[in-house]
Design the sequence.
């Protein structure tokens, strides 16, 4: 990475040639309204600096929008789709186009998407794929591509980050649960390949129970409503002794647990309490309504895009934004 050349910008060309941005743009786009001597000087500067026109330079003359790369795990999840909606809203407002790079909860695939982002020559990137570690994302920053990372703590001159404080929220929930008289065994549902966010919450679940001197269970489940429902239906049919307080990754998994409990003859929340970490509108639609942690993901998408536009113009002052989840108390847990 140390041998990489910095991306030369149209601003640097204009400054080196001693002309305006508009003049450089006219030269790039072969407009006639440039004096021959000026055109020759600008072309010589472009050659000397090794400048390659980007979408931003083209937009100055043609009104074409600049291109932003967006890396996400999958638009099939409601919370991802909501965030993408917020990004799209601001991109439209600011006259940017978006190129979507979708992965499938695989680090190898996410890394291949990073390579595609770089070779596509986007003007900036928003990355929301928590399979990626800080070193992975820094690969983009090393190419001087302004980048906003969602739910991953990364710092750098061309990087901004938005951090979701789910791990702090889950710790507070656990402490409050026991302090307010909660006495059911608490179980965290682990699903494979669900990323760093869930991993952070799992670690906090274990640590908080250790700090409180209590036992917290961990069980594996499928990241599928149908499979989770069938597994828990079999479990709950064995009797109310298998009840408890179950913390699930997202709403569909929480719905699978509470539906299995009801169909097995157990009562929610008297026998089985259910909590969703990543809550969406479905937490309100389900009956009983699911207790869940909510972040306005549309707003998070807006903030990410606004941060990126500020980065693109070297105007971003606060490069880190922290978003606290809001706890919605539904009917799937006992009111205490």
Sequence:
């Amino acid at each position: 990475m140390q041998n990489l050349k910095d991306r030369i910008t149209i601003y640097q060309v204009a400054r080196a040639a001693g002309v305006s941005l508009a003049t450089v743009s006219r030269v790039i786009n072969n407009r006639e309204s440039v004096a021959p001597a000026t055109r020759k000087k600008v072309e010589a500067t472009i050659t000397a600096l090794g400048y390659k026109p980007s979408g931003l330079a083209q937009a100055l003359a043609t009104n074409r929008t600049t291109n932003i790369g967006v890396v996400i795990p999958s638009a099939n999840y409601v919370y991802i789709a909501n965030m993408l909606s917020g990004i799209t809203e601001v991109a439209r407002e600011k006259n940017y186009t978006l190129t979507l790079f979708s992965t499938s909860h695989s680090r190898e695939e996410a890394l291949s998407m990073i390579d595609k982002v770089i070779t596509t020559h986007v003007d900036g990137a928003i990355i929301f794929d928590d399979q990626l570690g800080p070193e992975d994302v820094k690969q983009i920053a090393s190419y001087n591509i302004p980048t906003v990372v969602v739910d991953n703590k990364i710092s750098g001159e061309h990087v901004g980050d938005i951090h979701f404080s789910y791990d702090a929220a889950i710790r507070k929930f656990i402490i409050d649960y026991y302090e307010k008289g909660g006495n059911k065994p608490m179980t965290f549902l682990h699903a494979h390949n669900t990323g760093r966010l869930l991993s952070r919450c799992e670690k906090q679940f274990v640590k908080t129970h250790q700090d409180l001197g209590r036992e917290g269970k961990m069980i594996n489940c499928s990241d599928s409503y149908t499979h989770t429902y069938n597994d828990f239906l079999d479990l709950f049919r064995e009797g109310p002794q298998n009840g408890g307080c179950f913390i699930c990754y997202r709403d569909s998994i929480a719905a699978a647990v509470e539906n299995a409990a009801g169909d097995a003859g157990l009562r929610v929340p008297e026998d089985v309490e259910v909590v969703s970490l990543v809550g969406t509108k479905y937490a309100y639609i389900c009956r009983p309504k699911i207790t869940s942690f909510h972040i306005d993901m549309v707003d998070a998408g807006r903030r990410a895009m606004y941060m990126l536009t500020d980065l693109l113009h070297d105007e971003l002052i606060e490069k880190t934004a922290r978003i606290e989840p809001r706890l919605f108390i539904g009917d799937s847990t006992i009111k205490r």
Remarks:
- The chain has three domains: 10-61, 65-164+297-325, 166-294.
- The mean pLDDT is 87.
- The radius of gyration is 25 Å.
